[in-house]
Amino acid sequence: MRTRQTTLLLLVLLPLLAAVAAAGGVRRSLAGEWRAIDVGSAHTRELGAFAVGEHNREAKPLLIYKGVVSGEVYLPDPTRLRLVVQAAFNGYIRKYEAEVWEQIPWRLVSFKPIP
């Protein structure tokens, strides 16, 4: 009799525990994570050019945009992007990390050289 009650209790509790574990997994992904984006898309290239242009508007030296090397979008908020762009100055090409908020209007949040 005792074994039967324990088995029934387990049958009731296991699906409940699985649901709780699954809900915990959803909560973790809602905390936010960076995911890779397609750097070959016209939109991503446009964002990279925007980042270099905004940097040039705010600071010296003037850089020449060369392209996007890699990029990530922050989920669950797809308006935050982190791009690695290439830009030239005096014939030398360097990589820079730019964070862009793709809200209206777009906004350059940070732009720094990558050592």
Automatic annotation (TrEMBL):
GO terms for molecular function: cysteine-type endopeptidase inhibitor activity. Transmembrane segments: none annotated. It comes from the Eukaryota. It holds the Pfam family SQAPI. InterPro entries: Cystatin_dom, Cystatin_sf. Gene3D superfamilies: 3.10.450.10. SUPFAM superfamilies: Cystatin/monellin. Residues 38-113 form the Cystatin domain. This is Cystatin domain-containing protein. The lineage of its organism: Eukaryota, Viridiplantae, Streptophyta, Embryophyta, Tracheophyta.
